Amino acid sequence: MRKKIISFLATFIIILTSASQYSFADDISTRGKVIFIDMNRTSMSNMLRIKSLREELDNRGYIGLMNIRGDKGSDDRRSYASMGAGGRANVANEEDINFESSSKDRNIVFESATGKSAKGINNLTINKSINENLNFGEYGSVLGSLGQSLSDNGLKASVLGNSDIIENGQLIKNRNLCLTAMDEYGRIPNGNVDTINKKDLSMPYGISTDYDKLIVETKEAYKNNDVIFVELGDTYRLDLYKPNLNEKTYESMKDSIEKNIDIYLKNIFSMVEENDTVYIASAFPSDLDYKNKRRLSPIIKLNGEGKGILSSSTTRREGIVTNLDVGVEILDNFNIKNQNMVGRKYELINRDDNKEFLMDEYQKIVSISSIRSTILNGFVSIVFLSWIVAMIAILFRKHISKNYKETTFFILKELLKIGIVMPLSFMITPIMNFKTPLAISLGIIIITLTIYLISKVLIKNDLKNMLFFTGLTIVIMVIDAGFGSYLMKSNVMSYDCIIGARYYGVGNEYQGVAIGSAIFTFAILLTYKNIPKWSIIVFSLVILITSASPIMGANVGSAISECVAFLLFILLIYNVKIDFKKIVLLGIAVVFVLGVFVAIDMILGSNSHLGMFVKEIYFNGPGEIIQTFSRKIEMNLKLAQTSAWVNILLTGIGVILVLMINQIRYFKQLMDEYPIVFKGFIASIAGCLVTLLVNDSGIVSSATAFIYVIVPMITLSINLTALKE
What we know:
The protein is of the alpha/beta class. The chain crosses the membrane at residues 375-395, 415-432, 438-459, 466-486, 510-528, 535-553, 559-576, 583-604, 644-664, 676-694, 700-723.
């Protein structure tokens, strides 16, 4: 009986295994292959000059712009490495990256250094890049995750081409596309990175890609591999060689290169089959584009008949993806996932006017990026200098002539209000869809003046006047967060997708604005409108959910700091005594809110910053917490030395200290006449302190929140002291 059972089970297992093998084999035969073509240092507009590609995109294809940021800087090699790692990666210097085709001597060198068997192409100095990434990288990315996943799943990869140059008769090798295709030990199964160029004295550095040979080898690689990476090389060489050319010779070489690429792409498009996927990308922008803030590189996906633009849950923005997504996207063609990779696969958004839409978006992005620092530095300067001038006037008020005192302080109060008017103006300006730097700048000025004049005509009381600005600000923020954060994404004071620190949700600048404007609005409504206190709880929840939840605002720092600030304000207006037990309860409440948001993120699969942080802790261990907060502290220390926002923070602290020391009577009067407003100041300051600790741009968030404390505080000081004497 036992033998029969064993025999039956053995037969069942054999049948099951055979069925599984058949299904897997069937899957291999029907899935397509992937070809990734790199035209490095090329813009989307230059790609569209290539006839075969332009015609292909007229009928099908999804296009996008790719953030190229790496770990510890942005350059070609870091962008390639980040594509392969699926996370921001750091690598060794250019001269310490040494990809070579297999040979007996090279294999011995590689195997002696790594202890691993050599493959078709190997980075003989891979340990330098691994150590550089481990010792100095901030993000814990694993180099070669893409190639390793392909290898682990029995898929073959090949790399063809290079970006080598010849200077002073010496060959300088550049095979950085291999950083994308390699496995974790710097190996690629096969390819040709050595003998793919030809001598051509009419081209940059006297060499060019041998396209006849490349076409033959691509077709051969297509038969024997699942993923083929192709480095065209000439576009990179042309960009590097440009300083040696005049306008005419540059255009002549450019035309020749584009004609060669056109012939190559025609062959590729006729070779690929229905299920295949072709990616055409530029790992890094041209030198001129980079200098002119045009720092997003093009990427194209050709698969099937669809037409539109690319996006991903990394950016949640139409037309924008990142280099972190490339490796994940390639693996997704084979239904493979790698937990080390934090990028996300592409989302395909159908759109017939994809080229026009993307070019318009890029123009706006570049315009905002080019004027962002100038406008924000100007705004910050006006804010903190107005505080200093106002405080000097208050301290020396007795020396101001009575004939000019009222006028002087009126002007100062109105100047102070710029600090809370302009964040509102920055939010409204994107509605006008301005595209050029001049139009955006003029739009901000006109909208600021319009909002200010409307409020001044309608409302005379200073606090109610400021309520108009803060109330409108927080209402617009809530609505915007609920409908995809369009205004936040196109906002001069918000995040910049070229920098790539954040792409969606509520930015760090507006995290502080949300805290400060909301609490001030609550305080004034309670003071003048006598709204029920329970309504503050409801409003706080709405703001917290929209500005901090993973599916909307998606700001972890905002979740923590808003939770503390709002809860503290609610406790204060209910006259609850704040002791150690209440502080512990505040901490528990924060943990609970974060837990709820993590659960929402996991259930909905929104892949927000918070959800990804929790996943990193799960896969990499508790050390990820230390690494993350170390990065936040390092960033804040850097901002303290370089950011203009620190001037607001330091000036605000100075204002409070001066008022407490020299104007103690004012503080007592403020507590007596405006008790709820004073409690609002305490809650907002607590929010500032918390966001300073938990945010990687805590100085920025704290500074913007501080504006909504200091502006009304100085205004009330003028009204209660200077103008009453």
